[in-house]
Every structure is written in structure tokens, then in C-alpha cells.
Amino acid sequence: MTRHIHALETGLSSDPPMNWRLSALDSFTLVSNSDCHSHWPWRIGREANVFELDKLTYMEVVDAIRRKDPKRFKFTIETDPAYGKYHWTGHRNCKVSLPPQEAIKYGNRCPVCGRKLTRGVDQRIEELADRPADYTPENAIGYKRLLPLSEIITAVLGVSYQGAKTVWSVYTPLVKKFGDEYTVLIDAPKEEMSKIVDSRIAEAIVRVREEKARVIPGYDGVYGQLAIFEDKQEEVKPQKPSQKSIFDFM
């Protein structure tokens, strides 16, 4: 019955480059939709599909997806999958998070306590993939990696709650000035944003846009963390098995 299925949703846990590594998915168009069931309203619309259509109708959208037409289906907007709670393999209790190669090297056992690690999506892709990590199929629909504006502001301000008034006192003027959140994230000039908000926030938005901001990968139920102004983070490896942290990215 797969002949009746024309699209697969990547969601938060994966993005097109991860899916392109599986040749079995070549016949499907990759779409990306937001967490619309979340009780946090700022997560609605954080992933999206961008179309350029002569007529905005259901059939036009469906036809563009079925035909994987790059002239009408321009690109998807993706939240960096490292932001997800299960991107890397790890063990939350021991604060151990491992990329696929390291997890496999340890036999998927926690190097601190010896218990079974919670396998991450990145490792699952590695196990299933029949292509290298940099593979791009012909006629692939493009994508942009972004993060929600409220989360960027939260990271810069150093607050823990996106619903804080300080976050929305920055968010609202930006959206009012440029019309909508995606215009701020994708097109708004840094100089213009700096006229109405702190220049560090304008710089952070541009860094996310240009994929210069790093996301510390999530693991075993722990969300990834946005590190905007860190250029380099060193790994901390244990000197003896009893140490509680193998890779201390925090």
C-alpha cells in the first residue's frame, strides 16, 4: 500500500540530511510540520513547509507534494534535530551522552554504571543508513534549519521559561516591526533589528539563520541546549570509570 503514500514527515527528531541517507525513502517527499498538539503555544509553527503557488488550494498543495516539485515546493523549515530529547544515545542519571560511534564502541552500555543506554535517533539513522552523511539526492526539496524566535531570545537573556514577560517584551516589537516571526528569522537585517532590540539578540538571530549557533545534543529525555555565543566546547573525558561524566557538554 505504500504506493498510496507520497510524503513522510520528518518532525523534530530528524531532518532531510538524516533521511537522505536511507535510499528506501527516495520515492517520498519529505515534509515538516510543527508540534501543534503541544500545550506551549510558542511551539506551534516551529516547523513548516514553504510553497510558492499560483493558486492557494488544497489540490495545488497536494500536487506539489506528490510531484516533489521544487518550483512550487520551495523548502521545509526544520528545527535542528539535535534540539530533540533523544538525538544522541545516553544515560540521563549518569549525565552520559554519546554520538553514534562512541555508543557503539561501548556496546550501548553506560560506561559509568554499565546499564543499557537509551539509543538516540542519530544512532538509529547510522544503523539503517546505506549512504554517507553528506549525501544529497537529485531534485531534493531544500530546507532551512531554524529555531523559534522565543527560544533564541530565552537563550540570550538566560531565563529558564519562554513564557516570561522579559522574553515577550523583546519578541513582540520584532514581530510588530517585520510582520511575522519567520520574516524575523529568515530575512530581517541585523542593523534594523538592532534599532529596536539589544544587538546581542539581533546577532543571535543571524547566527541561528546562518547555522553558526551550536546546539548541544539532547539525550535520554533531556532537551538539547542552544549555545549561541560559544565558538568551541571541549569534551571532558573521565580519568577513571567511576567518574560521573564522560562528555560534559553542560
**Total DSSP E strands:** 9
Total number of helices: 9
Sheet having the most strands? 3 strands, mixed
What amount of the residues lies in strands?
5-15%
- Average pLDDT, all residues: 89
Residue share in helix: 25-40%
Cross-sheet strand order for the largest sheet: 3-4-7
Structural class: alpha/beta
Radius of gyration: 20 Å
Q: Note the gap between the termini.
A: 46 Å
Task: Name the helix and strand elements from N-terminus to C-terminus, one letter apiece.
Answer: EHEEHEEEHHEHHHHHEE
Shape: flat
Which residues sit in consecutive blocks of at least 5 with pLDDT less than 50?
Answer: 232-250
Secondary structure elements and their pairing?
Layout lengths: L6 E3 L6 H5 L8 E3 L16 E4 L6 H9 L6 E7 L9 E3 L4 E3 L1 H6 L15 H8 L13 E5 L2 H9 L7 H14 L2 H6 L3 H5 L4 H11 L4 E3 L8 E3 L23
Parallel strand pairs: 1-2, 4-7
Antiparallel strand pairs: 3-4, 5-6, 8-9
Outline of this structure?
The protein has 250 residues and is an alpha/beta fold.
Describe the structure.
The protein has 250 residues and is α/β, with parallel strands linked by helices. It is 29% helix and 14% strand. It has nine helices and nine strands. The protein has helices at 16-20, 58-66, 100-105, 121-128, 149-157, 165-178, 181-186, 190-194, 199-209; strands spanning 7-9, 29-31, 48-51, 73-79, 89-91, 96-98, 142-146, 214-216, 225-227. A three-stranded mixed sheet has the order 3-4-7. It has a two-stranded parallel sheet with strand order 1-2. A two-stranded antiparallel ribbon has the order 5-6. A hairpin with a 4-residue loop joins β5 and β6 (96-98). The N and C termini lie far apart (46 Å).
